[in-house]
Each structure stands twice: as C-alpha cells, then as structure tokens.
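Reopening closed ticket. The problem is back. First fold of the pair:
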Amino acid sequence: MLQQFKSTDQNTVSFGHRLAASDAFKALFREGMLLVEESAAYLDGAGRKDARILSRGDALAYASESMRLTTRLMQLASWLLLQRAVNEGEMTQVQASADKHKVALSRQELASSPEAFARLPARLQELALQSQRLQARVMHLDRLIYGAELESAAPVVLGQIESLRAAFEVRI
C-alpha cells in the first residue's frame, strides 16, 4: 500500500497522497457532503421563502449567488467522490488523474457586489462563504496531489524535448 504513495523519486513520499488517504480527508469529505446537504435543504426550503421577500434586484443577486453556490458545491462533491474512490481502491490515482479533467476546480468569487451580497439572506451568505473556504482547502489538496505529479514530470518532459532537439538538429 505504501507503494501508491511513492513519488517518481523513490526516496520521497508524497504528502498530498498521504493526506488524501488520512482521517483528515475523511473529515473533509464529511464536511463537504454535509455542506451540500445543508445547502440543498436551505435552497429548497427556507431559501425559497427568503427569496420571495427580496426586492427585484436582490432577488436576481440571490438567484445568481445560489446558482454559483450550487455549481461550486457540485464541483467539490465530484472531486471529493473521485478522491474517495481512489482511497477505497475503486480506481487508481492514474485513473483519477485521467478523469480529473472532468471536474473543473476553479476559484469562484462571489457573484454579487459586496453591497448586494450583504443584502442577501444571512443563511445564503454563510453557505456561500463556507463553500469558498471548503473550495480553497480542496484546491490546496488538489495541488498537493496532482500538482506534484506535474512538477515531477516536468524534468522528464524537458529531457525528452532536449533529446528530440538534439536528434533533429542539423549538423554541419
């Protein structure tokens, strides 16, 4: 099992891979799934009531913010489920790397201006801010796991480019 944590350098162990397979990841996973459930419950329940009493402009900001929240949470849930599948042996890290392009982890700012955001219902604000904090943590873990793979591959790729350059160089 330790072999899956080894990087291309046989003397180092990837911190990101160890963290992803740890109890800390399990806690992050639970937190992410709970946030998805809480957000869905709010948006389908009390959030609908909250949105009805907003002015037209604030209702538009509410709709925009709730769509961004939903999108952000679906990206996070997809990434967490993908990583959990690796941890449970349902797929390899290589397979996850190949499928990872389907999960667009991109930093999303709040949709609303600070003034409009401040006028949104407090619960929507809390959920949006919690999701951004979770997103930052997941993106950091993603860089630890997959960024290290890209960095370790760079010297190999550069070496191959130099070999190709040398092979095709015209010698006089």
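Second fold of the pair, where the issue appears:
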Amino acid sequence: MPQKNWIDKLNENKTSQIKRIEKKFADIPADSNMFIATPNIIEAYIQNIGYGKQVDIKTIRKDLALDHNADYTCPVTTGIFLRIVAEANYEKLQQGKSITEITPFWRAIAPDSALAQKLSFGQEFLIQQIENERKSL
C-alpha cells in the first residue's frame, strides 16, 4: 500500500470527540473534558483567521474547547493536525495552486515554534508569508 501524502491525511474522514480525562495530561487537569479535533476542524479555524493576523496554538485550543463545549483541547493532536494542514496546503502549492487558493497556515504557526522546525519546507516560507501580508496591510 503506498504511503499517504499530506493531502490524503488532511482528507481522511476523522470524527472529533470529547474525552473525559481521568488523570492530569499535559496542561490539562484531571477530571476535565478534552476536545479532540480533526485536521478539517483545524483547517476551518485557520481559514477564519484574518489577513495579516497571527493566532498562537494556545488561543486555537481555547477557542476550539469553547466552540465544542469542552474544558480544554488536546495539545498533542492539535499540533499534529496543524502540521497536517500546513504540509497538505504546501503540497497543494507545489501542485500549482496559488497562494490565495490554499489555507493560510502561516497565520497559526509561529516561525520560531517547535512545530515550524518540523515542517518539511522549513521556517523561511512562514516568515516570507507573514511579511508579505504585513507589507500589504
């Protein structure tokens, strides 16, 4: 079976869920309701971030928890799904889509973050897109 590309991973039919956390997990206290998003939910959130704006992962997690009636959003899956959104949309760009046709993931990933360092295309692309938007405001 061929390995899935990032676009395949983005398009997988995943279902979000809320899990009751019995023990403390990351920054989430015991006995909390934790929302587990999907790559598509993360992508939809990013598509609503305004042009030239930046939103950090903590804000994304807080907003998604509120939107889905949970106490917290899972930090691990949020980071994984944010990477899937970024890599898949970068793949779309490589396949010929224009910058205006892809999800502006650079609005949700700080260039100096640990996640940015894991991206296959590096931090320079993020920096360039953030600067392009700032210049045209």
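Update: turned out to be a display glitch only; the data is intact. The chain has one domain: 6-135. The chain has a mean pLDDT of 96. Please close again.
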